[in-house]
Design goal:
Helix 1 packs antiparallel against helix 2, helix 2 packs antiparallel against helix 3 and helix 3 runs parallel beside helix 5. This protein is 62% helix and 3% strand. The chain has 144 residues and is mostly helical. It has a two-stranded antiparallel sheet. The chain contains 8 helices and 2 strands. The mean pLDDT is 96.
């Protein structure tokens, strides 16, 4: 986990998941800000689906961290973070999910919509509506 080589840190985290979920989550929390994108991505995956309040807060921080952008463009790990947060969204996070819908990164839109549906119990648009159409309906809802 402390290797200078990113592929070794990544491999160690993946192997640790097979040995101990608790230990892999602890290691993942430490690697969320790793200098290597592939390690940060593996760390998000290793957190599992049962996120504590501390983990959620940390993921929201990581979503906006400067190293998860390159030349002002959102990196793929942000979509992973959004998906992880959307698994069990908290009511008080509603405005943060709406804010993700306002971003240009389309990888954030579907998880944000899923989270908003879980929080509000509402579905905007038909089953055949595109993510972009549903996004616009949710943004209109948020304005009201």
């Amino acid at each position: 986990l402390n290797s200078n080589e990113c592929y070794m840190r990544n491999a160690a985290l993946v192997a640790l998941q097979e040995i101990s979920q608790a230990e892999s989550q602890k290691a993942a929390m430490q690697l969320l800000d790793d200098k290597a994108l592939v390690v940060r991505s593996a760390a998000v995956d290793a957190l599992g689906s049962d996120l504590s309040a501390n983990m959620r807060d940390r993921l929201w921080e990581e979503l906006h961290a400067s190293y998860n952008f390159r030349k002002k463009e959102s990196l793929w790990v942000r979509g992973q973070i959004a998906s992880k947060l959307a698994l069990s969204p908290e009511k008080e996070e509603l405005s943060q999910f709406v804010a993700m819908l306002k971003e240009n990164d389309s990888r954030l839109h579907a998880p944000s919509i899923a989270a908003l549906e879980k929080i509000t119990g509402q579905i905007k648009g038909s089953a055949k509506a595109s993510t972009d159409q549903r996004r616009h309906l949710w943004l209109k809802w948020a304005q009201n």
